[in-house]
Amino acid sequence: MEIIRKPNVKLSRRLGYEVESITLLAETGASLTALNYGGIIEKIIMPDRKGLLENILLNDDDIQHYCENPYYLNAAIGLSAGRIANGRLDLNGAIYALERNQGVHHLHGGAKGLHHQRWYIDSVEKGTNDASIVFTYNHEHLSDGYPGNIMIKFRITLTEEHHVKLLFEAVTDRMAHLNLTHHGYYNLSGRRSVDIGEQYLFVNASRYYEIDADGIPHKEPSALRDTPFDFHRLVPIAQSYQSSINGIDHPFCLERSVAEQGPDILYGDETSGRLMQLSTNQNVMVIYTNNGDFKRHRGICFEAQAVPNSIVSLMPGEVYYHETVMVFESDFDKDRFYL
């Protein structure tokens, strides 16, 4: 495993401080490149069935657009992933007013969210079969409306077997709310022009949360069966285009009893042969098929987290622990999976 570090001149000039690009490179040519700005993973390079190496993350045309990043492209998200209704955080009776950055609601931590923060490079570690980048960020109490002096550690690992591991850990000095995720936009074709609709998806879930017109989840989950979001069998993502929002932007309740025997998500592309098997310790997977104007349906997000608009309390002495593992292969055949 090789580690390559270099300054990102364009972002450094734009932001006014040094932004570093760190690449973890496997012997197979697979690689991962991350930035110490926004917790952004800029590239994940994986081979197709013919050995062609391509970036399976959807990128903007100009890296400087990460400075605005209105689509939260490939970034760390927090202190709360998803929407908080009316920007009102009720933490055990203490009310905190958060920025209303999407209509009357709060979204993805607001303008001072983790996607816009400078992360400290704690270490870059090389093992016998893997390599890791460890970023840290210290959140100051009420700096963005959220309570708590919170130390967040974000470890990104690539293995020689093409496993990508994302690990968030955090501690606080007082009662806090923390619901983190990573907002990678994946397209296993490796090509930004390809619609994800003909790619295949399995979600280990039988229930999901419907959302209102503002994207706020209902209080109780509903059955997935016979809806456009029913992916309990491996079927094309285009099935979801039949929904009223022309895609998915919903939390799915992950079924732990089945997940212990297999992944929470299967996402495959028959043309390239690439397959992602994703597992997480989180209870919910928010799936977003990029239904807006920006490169519409050219990427899909898997946001492992707790239910949006719910409270995830963290107390002093506790450790927030959030792990997601993605296993990439290059021999996808939908007929292999009898789901």
Quick summary:
By secondary structure, the chain is mainly beta. The chain has helices at 9-15, 256-259, and strands spanning 2-7, 20-25, 31-35, 41-47, 53-55, 76-77, 83-84, 88-91, 94-97, 106-107, 120-126, 130-139, 150-159, 163-172, 176-177, 181-182, 185-186, 200-203, 207-208, 222-223, 235-236, 249-253, 265-268, 275-280, 284-288, 300-305, 313-314, 320-329.
Can you give a write-up of this model?
The protein is mainly beta and 339 residues long. The protein has a single domain (2-336), classed as Beta-galactosidase, Chain A, domain 5. It is built from two helices and 28 strands. The strands form seven sheets. A nine-stranded antiparallel sheet has the order 11-12-13-14-28-24-23-18-21, with no helix packed on it. A hairpin with a 5-residue loop joins strand 2 and strand 3 (31-35). It starts with a strand and ends in a 10-residue tail after the last strand. The mean pLDDT is 96.
Q: What's the topology here?
A:
Layout: E1 2-7, H1 9-15, E2 20-25, E3 31-35, E4 41-47, E5 53-55, E6 76-77, E7 83-84, E8 88-91, E9 94-97, E10 106-107, E11 120-126, E12 130-139, E13 150-159, E14 163-172, E15 176-177, E16 181-182, E17 185-186, E18 200-203, E19 207-208, E20 222-223, E21 235-236, E22 249-253, H2 256-259, E23 265-268, E24 275-280, E25 284-288, E26 300-305, E27 313-314, E28 320-329
Antiparallel strand pairs: 1-2, 2-3, 3-4, 4-5, 6-16, 7-10, 8-9, 11-12, 12-13, 13-14, 14-28, 15-27, 17-26, 18-21, 18-23, 19-20, 19-22, 22-25, 23-24, 24-28, 25-26
